[in-house]
Amino acid sequence: MYRELMRKNEITVDDEDTSLFMYVLSSIYMYLFVVVLAMVMAIHSMVINWEKDITGSITVQVLPVEDENKKIDTDKTQLEINKVLQYMENVSGVKSVHVLDAKSIEKLMTPWLGNKVDITSLPIPQLMDIQLDEDVEINYDEITRNLHKITPNASIDNHRLWLNRLLKFANSLNSLALAVLTMVIIICAFSIYYSTHTSLGINMNSIEILHIIGAQDDYIAKQYAHSYAKIGFFSGVIGLMIAVPTIILISKYAISTGSGLLNGAGLNEINWIIMLFTPVFSLLFARFTAYYTVRRSLEKMC
Predict the structure, then answer these.
(1) Could you report how far apart the first and last alpha carbons of the chain are, in Å?
(2) Is the whole model's pTM more than 0.85, yes or no?
(3) Which domains are assigned to the chain?
């Protein structure tokens, strides 16, 4: 590939004013392309992790029991928790039941209440994290009815309602990112098309001489394709080199927010490999666009 890029051509755009313009513009396009591509892949990974983590679990909560003085009755509350725990452990399809301790609940509530609030004095429900077997069908209505028979203070949350809202938001965001990605590709193709037309006008005398000595349109189109492949490749490298630090910076900022929803929005090894091949994609895209433009333009001139 390197030997092909360094090959000499009879027609080249390297010495034209449009060459620098195309290097700068293509580098910007590839920067945007890589950043948006990383965003698309990160959103896809996030949605997969959401579905994996949330659809395979449910949450049961037991409200604390109050006495006549509206104070929490610890003994009665614990008795109801034990009954609910025993029932959930025997439900078909339940793999494990984990009762969250006070520290875990406090950690969950801290972002909402702050560090200075004593949650032990608040009527916070006891939470149970229920892990389900894979591909299991749970009858949530039946479980809800049985829980209410045990205690009216128990309720179940299968996360499906708010998960669907999150998935809808994520899919909308992903569609928007794909639209931006498509727009970047279209604008880049238009820029190559415009630049190639300009270069054809500048090199018309050289093209006529090549025609006189027997050169075919395909040969001339390949000359342009080679020149723009070079621009596409090195612009892709420049765009990638600038985009990678940007992606890493955004990832660190997302992690620093401490939002559990963003924890699954990471990029794996395959995602990074795909991004490393973007200069090759840029080369092939620029080469094909320039070749097609020159062939069509020369056919219209004949």
Answers:
(1) 33
(2) no
(3) 2-52+163-301 (no CATH), 57-158 (3.30.70)
